[in-house]
Amino acid sequence: MEVPDKVICVDCGRMAYRLTIEPEFGFSNGDWVAYRCSGCGDRWDLEVSMSTKPSTDPKNH
Ligand SMILES: [Zn+2]
Known about the structure:
A hairpin with a 6-residue loop joins β1 and β2. The model has no long low-confidence stretch (mean pLDDT 86). The protein has strands at 6-8, 15-18, 32-37, 43-47. Strands 1-2-3-4 form a four-stranded antiparallel sheet, with no helix packed on it. It has no helices and four strands. The structure holds zinc ion (ZN). The site of zinc ion has 8 residues, from loops.
């Protein structure tokens, strides 16, 4: 499944870029993906989950 290349750092509001390389067959539910903030340098670990999809409304096709 897809994970974002970058996320917004909740501490400083800058972009945090993905450190973890996508596996050959993609990420799967329960994998952990690391991000490094370009502003404050904090590391963020996000768990890949089916329920935390990007905020796209499926009704907007
Ligand atoms: Zn930050």
